[in-house]
Every structure is written in structure tokens, then in C-alpha cells.
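Please, structure for the following, as C-alpha cells.
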Amino acid sequence: VEPGTYSLAPATAEELESSLRYMLARGSDQIAFYYPGLSEAEARRLMDRSLAVMKDYCEQGYNEVRCTRGAGLVTLAFSAAGAGRRTREYRAEAMEAAAAVHDRLWAEGILRPDMTELEKARVYYEWICENCSYDYQAGDGSLSHIPYNLFVNGVAVCDGYTGAYNLLLKLEGISCTTMSTPDHIWTVAELDGTTYHIDTTWGDMTTGGIDYKYFAMSEKEALGRF
């Protein structure tokens, strides 16, 4: 964080999300808050709240945070578990690979200008399911939790699936975020003016091919699974 570059301590969840979105828009992985007298417990809560926000933007590949404090400033530095100093490299490779998928699908005529957003989202749903396998061996520090591993190595767990899918949708200009339980995460996308829940992970885990019942679900259908 550059000297003198910081935000006032966020007073609400909305202010924290706004600050973190600004950080992401700048292409940065660090943010500093002026937060004098912050206790260890308060710092931990700030880190937890920040990671909860990052879960909504899992296409960014950030799922780990470090906190340093000094001179009234609290600096949060985000990275990907298992990636360490290669986080930026992996993020760049994931973006490059996603753009290549996007370009190829358009070049091959699988995606076309006359398609609705729902139809385009279905194409990407199929691509994810056809090009990834669930990583049953993944631990907390596995790269399978970030989009990079899906695009480069073809394996992922739910946050890797969801992050990769959301990245592809956003390359199409489709607005999307996530919904999660303590053990699972999936996509919530605005398609042609309607909100749909889409779970690429579960769509890919059915024996015998792609399971389309996890594509374009209502919120009631999505939450009714748990």
C-alpha cells in the first residue's frame, strides 16, 4: 500500500464491500484502513468479514488474507491458498485461459449474437461440466479452490467451479455473484432480467453426463437441496 493511501475504517458491511470492490477494480490485492486501536479480536473479525465479501467475487481467486497493523493503519493483503507469491501469476493465467475459451466458442459459432443471455450461460455451463472433474483429494490449501486449476489442470472443487464459471459469464457482460452454505457455493446470475441459480459443481457430478436440473434454478429450488 502506497504511503498515505488508505480508507477510513468501514462502519457498515456495505462500506467494507465498496472498499474491497474498489481495491479489485484497481487491480490491487491490498487495502489499508485507518483503524487506530484495533484489537486482535477486531482484526480477526475484519479479516473474516473481508473473506466473506471475497467469496461473492470468487472469480478473483482470493481466499486467504493476511493482516498487518501499525501507526493506526490496518493493511489486508489477499492471496490464494496454496499459491503464495504466485497468486498474481495464477490469476493472470486464469484470465488468459478464460478469454481463450470465450474467443474459441465465438469463433466456432457455438456462441452467436442472436442468443439470449440464458442460452449463452447454458453454453458456458456445458463447457465447464465437459472440461472439469471434481477434485476429491483437495485439501484447504489446494489450488482446486481457485479458477486457475479448472482452466489449466481441469480439476476443481465448488469454489473453483463457481469462480471459473462466473469469470466466463462476466467476460460476456453478464452480471453474477454467488450464494453459499458453510459447505458449498454456486452462481447467482441475472439472465435476460431474471435471477437464476446455477450450480456447475453439482451439474458435473452426476454419472452419465451433464445434469441440467442444476442450471437456471429458482432460489427456492437451489436452497431446497440442503
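The first helix runs from residue 13 to 25. The longest strand covers residues 184-191.
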